[in-house]
Specification:
By secondary structure, this protein is mainly alpha-helical. It folds into 2 domains: 44 residues; 39 residues, no CATH class. It has a two-stranded antiparallel sheet with strand order 1-2. The longest helix has 37 residues. The protein starts with a helix and ends in an 11-residue tail after the last helix.
């Protein structure tokens, strides 16, 4: 029966050998790919259509302001923590935008 320590050492050796073989083959693969890309005049989007040039702006949609401070013109959508100018107001109808 093989010992755990021996198997772990063997595994470590195999991992190193595997990575060395991978590194040795990468150069040849890259050369072949570049030849084919040049021959067919391919663009990155032809191979990877999910990668768009530039970065799409992904974010939250802006919310429409619902309330406005008449003194400063500051607005609030009614979502999240209320700003100081409206936080302690019981009836917010006076600040509603029409």
């Amino acid at each position: 029966m093989e010992r755990y320590v021996d198997l772990k050492a063997e595994l470590a050796e195999l991992v190193i050998k595997t990575e060395m073989a991978r590194q040795a083959e990468i150069h040849d693969v890259v050369v072949k790919i570049r030849e084919e890309v040049g021959k067919y005049m391919l663009e990155p989007r032809d191979i990877f259509p999910f990668l768009e040039e530039g970065r799409r702006e992904v974010g939250r949609r802006r919310t429409v302001p619902k309330y406005m401070d008449p003194q400063t013109g500051a607005t609030w959508s009614g979502r999240g923590r209320p700003p100081r100018w409206i936080a302690n107001v019981e009836n917010r109808d006076a600040f509603l935008l029409k």
